[in-house]
Design goal:
The protein is of the alpha/beta class. The chain has helices at about 20-25, 45-50, 50-60, 65-80, 95-110, 125-130, 150-155, 175-185, 210-215, 250-255, 260-295, 325-335, 365-380; strands at about 30, 90-95, 115-120, 135-140, 160, 190-195, 220-225, 235-240, 315-320, 335-340, 340, 355-360. α8 runs parallel beside α9 (about 210-215). The chain starts with 17 loop residues before the first helix and ends with a helix. Bound molecules: pyridoxal-5'-phosphate (PLP). Pyridoxal-5'-phosphate (PLP) binds next to α5. Its cofactor is pyridoxal 5'-phosphate.
């Protein structure tokens, strides 16, 4: 498989997708490319890992339904999502949010030909939607809470929003979601949300399920435990649907999987409880400190700025001024430091990302500091 994990070596218009860039970084200690959580475990989290044999035995003994219910209660409760539909099989556990996305995309493809999609966003979302034959209409993220989206909504069957967005960290406010859901209800469109980065920003902790339910629209939410905690990719992507969605999501889910390991669900439950017990506030502090490490470490470099001053997501964009982000990426690679060039986030217009890099903040302070120093020296040399 290794030989498929390549992107073109030098700058050029046909660069690989973001995950291909992330593959290249996987073996470097200075990998600040992917947004998976790779920092050290906290003391509380380390105690849970020490208890893994017990967790395994407990997960094996209990009825799966009970393990799932407890994991839902802990995770959705932690993030303020109290109105999630826990009682009637509408929270489907997937191995990852991309698997949830694939199931959703296949469900949409039988019912419509085009989807309005937030722009920019992580490129595996447009890639999965296009992969099932759907046409995409870009909607700038700052437009999504607006009253009048007639020009976009008239031609699509679904609106797909990543909130908080990756890479910008922008959150759709409660009022914005309510307005958008109202417009979707009027036009009988499906409103789909990817909330993978929800845990990082309290602005995303209002009860989305209440707003969606009250709007009367047909909705789907993809939740993701995978970005929050350093669980070595033991994670769940939850595919949550409205009762009247009218799409064959449950059938397509059953075409693909039976369920997620109860061990992983039990782990998510324990990490959620630890987070509720102070771990989430610690995580928010940790990400904020790492953001400061990057911003302070690059302070005074001519021409650069940080386009997302209010972001609380575990990623930070850096605008590199007149330099080419791909060339900076390439020079950093000579130092064994890996970041992400942002073109592919701008899936409808990649040149918009020519001058931005994305840095992952869910890393221990030492490698993040070292990578930031390398970035500073590369930027100063250009
Ligand atoms: C917003 C968003 N959704 C989904 C995914 C896919 O996550 P996974 O690789 O765990 O399926 C990513 C990956 O970074 C993402 O940023």
């Amino acid at each position: 498989m290794q030989e498929t994990r390549t992107v073109p070596a030098g700058p050029g218009p046909d660069v690989g997708n973001l995950t291909q860039f992330e593959y290249l970084a996987l073996n470097s200690p200075l990998n600040i490319a992917d947004a998976h959580a790779r920092q050290e475990l906290t003391a509380g989290q380390a105690r849970i890992i020490d208890d893994l044999p017990n967790l395994f035995l407990k997960a094996a003994e209990l009825p799966v339904e009970e393990v799932e219910r407890e994991a839902h209660r802990a995770y959705f409760g932690l993030l303020g999502q109290h109105s999630y539909p826990g009682d009637d099989g509408r929270v489907l556990a997937c191995y990852s949010s991309s698997v949830a996305m694939e199931i959703l995309a296949r469900s949409l493809a039988g019912a419509m030909s085009s989807v309005a999609l937030i722009h920019p966003t992580f490129d595996n979302i447009p890639d999965i939607l296009r992969g099932v034959g759907l046409d995409l209409v870009p909607v700038a993220e700052e437009r999504l809470g607006e009253d009048d989206l007639d020009d976009v909504l008239g031609s699509v069957g679904c609106v797909f929003v990543t909130t908080p967005n990756n890479p910008t960290g922008r959150v759709l406010s409660e009022e914005g979601l309510s307005r958008l859901a109202g417009q979707c209800a009027e036009r009988d469109l499906v409103l789909a949300l990817d909330t993978s980065f929800r845990g990082f920003d309290p602005a995303g902790h209002y009860d989305h399920y209440r707003v969606l339910r009250d709007s009367g629209c047909r909705w789907v939410v993809i939740e993701d435990t995978g970005k929050l905690w350093p669980t070595l990719d033991l994670k769940v992507g939850w595919l949550v649907t409205a009762a009247d969605l009218g799409l064959p999501v449950a059938k397509i889910y059953s075409d693909i999987l039976l369920g997620v390991s109860p061990m992983v669900l039990a782990l998510v439950q324990r990490f959620s409880e630890d987070a509720a017990d102070g771990g989430l506030a610690d995580l928010h502090r940790f990400v904020a400190e790492n953001r400061a490490v990057v911003r302070e470490g690059l302070a005074g470099v001519p021409g650069i700025h940080f386009p997302d001053p209010h972001s609380r997501a575990s990623v930070e964009r850096v605008h590199v001024g007149a330099r080419s982000a791909l060339e900076v990426w390439s020079s950093l690679r000579d130092h064994n430091v890996y970041v992400l060039p942002c073109q592919k986030f701008h899936w409808a217009n990649p040149p918009e990302g020519n001058s931005t890099l994305r840095i992952a903040l869910a890393r221990s302070a030492a490698p993040l500091g070292e990578a930031t120093r390398a970035l500073r020296s590369v930027l100063l040399a250009r």
